[in-house]
Structure prediction request, 250 residues.
Amino acid sequence: MITQTSEALARFSRIGALISLLGATHALSLILNWFSINYDNVGRSLITGYTFMEPLLFSLAAGGAAGATGVFSSNLKDLTKLRLVTPLLSFTAAGLALFSPLYTYLIKLPSFGGLNFIPELGLFAALFTGIAIAGASVLALIAAMRTRVTTYMAPSPLWATAMEEEAETVAEFTDPAVEAQTAILEQPPERGEREIETAGTGQCMICGDLISGGETESCRLCGAVFHKDCINVWVDLGNKCPSCGGELRG
Prediction:
């Protein structure tokens, strides 16, 4: 899919912000109760997400990777790097977020043996946010695979003013055929004023060189003067006067 650079950057920025939000939510699930332990109906203990060091580190790393995804997605302007970094960081965050509660439930708690562990809300919150980060990571991967950016650098028009060149401003180039169908030409200045201005400069409005001799032609509307060789080429490019936009030859 061919898209504008700004549109692609905005898409990755939105995905990165979503992943950052989900990562922060996953980290907050650490303060919830993940498990409860019943001691033969005599007592009951609660285990939070930060009770054990391993799931704490895994969940914090997941939140950090998700936050880094949001930061890079919002600040990177190179789409080539962005298409690689965003899915990589987001899938890393998703893997760590899912591994943390699964490690606690399947490996850490069974190692104690003989205790009756009951899952609590925090465990489901950690699993849900991990799955959500994985889903957002898939969106980032799809966006990276489908985004193709093409850049067209049009040359600066030959009639650009000296002020525009000093300010490093490049006028937008428009296909003369399309311009003739879609744009409404402004009214040209008075012919007399144009003729006086052109006569004073003595320059070809196409190549910019001084007209010292040889065959010349002028625009019928504004009086701009051109080398005959220049205007022959210019007519083939669109037959539009570079000064007033009028038709050069009928």
